[in-house]
Amino acid sequence: MIEKNNAGRIVFNILNYGFMAIFAVLCIAPIWHVLMASISNPRMLMNASGILWKPMGKATFSGYELISKNKDILAGYGNTLIYVIWHVTAGTMCTTVAGYLVSRKNFKLQKPLLLFIMFTMMFSGGLIPTYMVIRSLGMINTRWVLMIPGMMNAFYIVMMKSAFDQLPESFEESAKLDGAGPLTILFRILVPLVKANIAVIIMFTIVIHWNAWYPASIYMPKVRDKWPLQLFMRELLIQNDSAKVLSGNQALSKADFTSNLVKYCVTVIGTLPILLVYPFVQKYFVKGVTLGGVKG
Amino acid sequence: METSVTKASKLRRLRGWRADFSLNKGLYFLAVPIFLYFLIFCYLPMFGLVISFENYKPQLGVLGSKWVGFKNFADFFGGPNFLTILRNTLVISFLGLIVGFPASILYALLLNEVGVKWFRKTVQTVHVLPYFVSMVVICGLIIEFCATNGVVTDGLVSLLGIPRENLLQNPKYFWWINLFSDLWQGLGYGAIFFVSAIASVSQELHEAAAIDGAGRIRRAWHITLPGIMPAIVTMFVLRCGMLMQVGGDKILLLYNPSIYETADVISTHVQRMGIEKMQYGYSSAVGLFNSVVGTILLIVSNSVSRKLTDTSIV
């Protein structure tokens, strides 16, 4: 393509590249700031102002050492892993089965079940009635409350349905003739063909459950040993209360200095895994967004 | 494909339920847990909405509590905070719609003009990163940066000459803090959709226009923009359908009583009155009002979208 390289074009390019670069710095700066603060000298960190571009004082990992022995933080990390793994395995499996069911053309329940599921995209009972149902099931302050209620949602099921819809029926027919049951057909024959779509759902599931704090805050306010990491992070970052998390540690006398440091270290260990993995799995998120309807 | 689908559905219609059950026994068994899940966690709460019309007392139960008709709704509409809460919900939504939405389109168009491929790929990845930072961390950073000696406060004091204070304690600033932090977090992510729409615009049209002497900006205006118009309309309509759903979780983390006057929205009001003050009947009525308006918006916006672009979400 032939381009006119006139003056206006050059000015536009400089401004455009400049804007893109500055916005990239703006995106990274707060994250970098947290990373640098987490290895700063805790005493000097108390007087920090502005964005930290390098650690204050000599770089130290004392904050990380402290949280590596903290039972709340460790429990929170473990709990978050449990919830994420549960939703990635059990949740995705149920979503796949449901998507399969509502895509079977030769199944009388297909239409009614699809409408039953899709109606929940249009209307919901809202927070309070849902809370009351969950409370009457006796799930409040148990692990189940973060595992069962969020297992499936209509958006992902519809996404799986359209993936299954695109497969030719002949695959299934021949397996049926061989006497295979629906679960065998689904997981042996069809799932490998839609694994890209399943990967999309898994990626969104990981991010959503890794970062979720709200359900835990209303459904399990009292059981600290079952809290996901984000709730401890809320206590440290939002409520600015590090006494509860640090009370188990012998370092209480130093808590004034260290609490500030711990805040940043916990943020790093709670945020960095997702950010580091993202560039390698970006294509799944792009695919998910373009498939439409999926909103985080 | 087309004929086999219609054949299958015809056969299915002719078949009785009993015959279908013996043919698809496995599918029926699999459908039971899926059905129960949605029944319990989505439909039971809908029936639970009857407490919106009751003076609900937990010890009396849903069936035993006293029926009060529309009293809870009247309490909400006539309450001292109704107009404030409604205004805040709409203002925060509309700010996102009229600023955030065009911004992500503009950003996508600008990104498309970045010719150096490695640079474009890198900045795009970096610009999406904030979306994956958890809301708790985002709000923790906002609280730190907007504190009396925070970096945002510093900047605004020296640039605009505002008095030095904790910005999250002054109701005047909340809408803007919310808008700009949303922009920071969501611009790159919100643009992904448009970036891929732009990528699918015909390259031949661009080449033809370039030969005719159209510059980059004119081509963006006359070719790219019309090319992604269906995507824009679809997204815009979807966003309109969600006007009443202001994300309460961010506000819950950020607000405090001194800025309720600009920060309290319907979802935070429901959460405070319901979960904290345990006024179940009242807050479920407020939630029902929100759901009904939201559903109407969604249905209207979907039919508009279907008329305009032949695409709909639900």
Low-confidence stretches of chain B: none
Strand fraction of chain A: under 5%
Share of helix among residues of chain B? over 70%
Quaternary state reads: heterodimer
- Report Rg of chain B: 25 Å
Question: What is the CATH level 1 assignment of the largest domain in chain A?
Answer: Mainly Alpha
List unreliable stretches of 5+ residues of chain A.
Answer: none
Task: Please state the average pLDDT score of chain B.
Answer: 89
- What is the number of E strands of chain A? 0
* CATH superfamily heading of the largest domain in chain A: MetI-like
Structural class determined from secondary elements of chain B: mainly alpha
* Domains of chain B (count): 2
* Residues in helices of chain A, as a percent range: 55-70%
User: Could you give the order of strands across the largest sheet of chain B?
Assistant: 1-2
Say how many strands of chain B there are.
2
- Coarse shape of chain B: flat
The structure class of chain A reads mainly alpha
Largest interface: A-B, 93 and 97 residues
Structure description:
The complex is a heterodimer of chains A (296) and B (314). Chain A is 69% helix and 0% strand. Chain A contains 15 helices and no strands. Chain A has helices at residues 7-38, 42-45, 62-68, 71-101, 110-122, 127-136, 144-147, 154-165, 170-177, 182-190, 195-211, 214-219, 229-237, 243-246, 255-291. In chain A, α4 (71-101) packs across α13 (229-237). Chain B has a two-stranded antiparallel sheet. The two termini of chain B are 24 Å apart. Chain B is mainly alpha-helical and 314 residues long. In chain B, α6 packs parallel to α10. At the A-B interface, α1, α4, α5, α6 and α11 of A face α1, α2, α3, α7 and α8 of B.
